[in-house]
C-alpha cells in the first residue's frame, strides 16, 4: 500500500501500476472460447480488470447477424457476477468503424503512464493484424497477448515474423512496462467459434454448454440466429 502524505492523500509514486486486459470481438454470440480464455488470462496475469469490448462495425468482416444491442446484452449476461471481467461498450457508442487503435488510444489516455495495458488476440486475429488500421502503432499503447486457438492453423505473415523476432518474450509474466511486447499465453484449448454456434442454431440444434446458460436463455427469448431470422 502507498503511504499517506501530510495532506492525507496516497502518494501516486507508491501506487502499483494497474494491469488492464482488453478482449475485442464481434461476440456474435459470445461463447466459452472467449470467456474461459478471458478468465484464465485474467487470473494467470493477475489482471485488475479484463474488458470485453464488442465491436460496432467490424472493419475486417461481414456485418454481424444480430444487433449491437443484442450482442452487448449477451456479453453482459455472460460476465454478470464475475468481478474481473467487465464489459466496455465504448465501441458501440461510436458512429464510426471500430478501429482497435482508436480504442487503445482512448483507454491509454485514461490510465496512468505506468499502467499496463494488455490486448488479447486469438491466433487467427493476430495473424490478420497487418490488415488492421495503423496496426504498427498498437504496441505503443499495449502489450499483446496471443491466445492459442485449436481451430486455427494459419501461418503468420512475414510482417509478423519480423515483429515477433523483435518484440516477443517467452514468459508473459515477464512483460515489462506499460506496452511494447508480445507473449503467447496458454489457456484450455476450446475449439469453439461463433460461426459454429450460429450454424448450429440455424439448423435447429442446441448450443447448450457452448455458451453460458444466461446467454442461451437470451438467445432463446429473442429467437436469435434461428433459420426464420
Ligand atoms: P466468428 O466465428 O464469428 O468469426 P469468433 O468465435 O472467432 O467469431 P470473435 O468475436 O471474432 O469470435 O473473436 C474475438 C476474439 O476472441 C478474437 O481475438 C478471437 O481470435 C478470439 N477467440 C474466439 N474464439 C476463441 C477460442 N475458441 N479460443 C481462443 N480465442 C478465441
Automatic annotation (TrEMBL):
* GO annotation, biological process: NAD+ biosynthetic process
For this UniProt record, give its keywords in alphabetical order, as a comma-separated list. Answer: ATP-binding, NAD, Nucleotide-binding, Nucleotidyltransferase, Pyridine nucleotide biosynthesis, Transferase
The name this protein carries in UniProt is Probable nicotinate-nucleotide adenylyltransferase
Any GO molecular function: nicotinate-nucleotide adenylyltransferase activity
Q: What class of enzyme is it?
A: transferase
Q: Which PANTHER family match?
A: NICOTINATE-NUCLEOTIDE ADENYLYLTRANSFERASE-RELATED, PHOSPHOPANTETHEINE ADENYLYLTRANSFERASE
Q: Which Gene3D superfamilies match?
A: HUPs
Which HAMAP family does the record match to this protein? NaMN_adenylyltr
Q: Which gene encodes it?
A: nadD
Q: Where is the Cytidyltransferase-like domain?
A: 22-199
Spell out the family assignment given in the record's similarity comment.
Belongs to the NadD family.
Q: In which pathway does it act?
A: Cofactor biosynthesis; NAD(+) biosynthesis; deamido-NAD(+) from nicotinate D-ribonucleotide: step 1/1
Give the residues annotated as coiled coil: none
> What role does this protein play?
Catalyzes the reversible adenylation of nicotinate mononucleotide (NaMN) to nicotinic acid adenine dinucleotide (NaAD).
Q: Which reaction does it catalyse?
A: nicotinate beta-D-ribonucleotide + ATP + H(+) = deamido-NAD(+) + diphosphate
Concerning NCBIfam families, the annotation shows:
cyt_tran_rel (TIGR00125), nicotinate (nicotinamide) nucleotide adenylyltransferase (TIGR00482), PRK00071.1-1 (NF000839), PRK00071.1-3 (NF000840)
Q: Which domain of life is it from?
A: Bacteria
Amino acid at each position: 500500500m502507498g503511504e499517506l502524505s501530510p495532506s492525507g492523500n496516497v502518494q501516486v509514486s507508491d501506487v502499483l501500476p494497474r494491469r488492464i486486459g482488453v478482449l475485442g470481438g464481434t461476440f456474435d454470440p459470445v461463447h466459452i472460447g472467449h470467456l474461459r480464455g478471458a478468465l484464465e488470462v485474467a487470473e494467470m496475469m493477475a489482471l485488475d480488470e479484463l474488458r470485453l469490448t464488442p465491436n460496432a462495425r467490424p472493419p475486417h468482416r461481414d456485418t454481424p447477424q444480430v444487433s449491437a444491442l443484442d450482442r452487448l446484452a449477451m456479453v453482459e449476461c455472460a460476465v454478470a457476477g464475475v468481478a474481473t471481467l467487465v464489459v466496455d461498450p465504448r465501441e458501440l457508442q461510436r458512429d464510426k468503424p471500430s478501429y482497435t487503435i482508436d480504442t487503445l488510444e482512448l483507454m491509454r489516455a485514461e490510465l496512468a503512464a505506468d499502467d499496463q495495458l494488455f490486448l488479447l488476440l486469438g491466433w487467427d486475429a493476430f495473424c490478420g493484424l497487418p490488415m488492421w488500421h495503423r496496426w504498427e502503432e498498437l504496441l505503443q499503447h499495449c502489450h499483446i497477448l496471443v491466445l492459442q486457438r485449436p481451430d486455427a492453423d494459419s501461418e503468420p505473415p512475414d510482417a509478423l515474423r519480423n515483429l515477433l523476432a523483435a518484440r516477443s518474450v517467452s514468459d508473459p509474466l515477464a512483460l515489462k512496462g506499460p506496452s511494447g511486447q508480445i507473449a503467447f499465453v496458454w489457456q484450455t484449448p476450446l475449439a469453439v467459434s461463433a460461426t459454429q454456434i450460429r450454424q448450429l442454431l440455424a439448423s435447429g440444434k442446441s448450443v447448450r454448454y457452448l455458451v453460458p446458460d444466461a446467454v442461451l436463455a437470451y438467445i432463446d427469448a429473442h429467437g436469435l440466429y434461428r433459420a426464420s431470422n
